[in-house]
Amino acid sequence: MRSRKFLKAEQARLVWDAPGLLAGVDEAGRGPLAGPVVAAAVILDDTRPIRGLADSKTLTPLQRERLHDQILAKALCCSIAQASVEEIDTHNILQATMIAMRRAVEGLRLKPAKVLVDGNRLPTLDVLAEAVVKGDSLVKAISAASILAKVHRDRLCEQLHTEFPHYGFAGHKGYGTPEHLEALQRHGACVHHRRSFSPVAAALARTAAGATLVVETVSVTPAVFATVETVRLDLRAAP
Length: 239
Hints:
Layout: H1 4-7, E1 22-28, E2 37-43, H2 61-74, E3 77-83, H3 85-91, H4 93-106, E4 114-118, E5 128-132, H5 135-138, H6 140-163, H7 169-172, H8 178-187, H9 198-208, E6 228-234
Parallel strand pairs: 1-4, 4-5
Antiparallel strand pairs: 1-2, 2-3, 3-6
């Protein structure tokens, strides 16, 4: 009789890899109550190393901005993509994240031989791929992707703040902080809130029930989050 250990499915690291370019992929914005989820894919240039690459969550905003600029200047190619609030509410946040990751990989000018993705799930790709738990702190290409995704999304939230300053997006970046939850209770949800997330759904229910809301508007150009947005950054010719 086969042992239980034999029957247990395990994920094994591939002992062979096709030669070629390696891309790292990571996301930013799975947890917030508003705004799109953003993913980035990066192919680094081994001949132009970047010092200080790390999980974006462990870096200060100033460090992220500095590394963001270095990645754009030194990487072979990068791609930033997103899945919209509508896609998050339609498919759920996990599937929307996979959609954004797939778009980021497909947006790369150079086709990688292998893709390393942070976490334990893989998007549907047409290239060899591997999920790496805590990859943003273990694989430099994934660290670079995490930095690009985080900086890009933070900038989107700053744009949202100019349109809806009473929610405080520039500070909490859409996360469910006490300040944000209080603003939701007072003002209700705006068009950029994720309606499938429970605090937003509760705010909408209060609005539907006729609760009094304080509405504030600012005359600015609205921040636009397209259903499909890929920023393709062709930085260097292939070696």
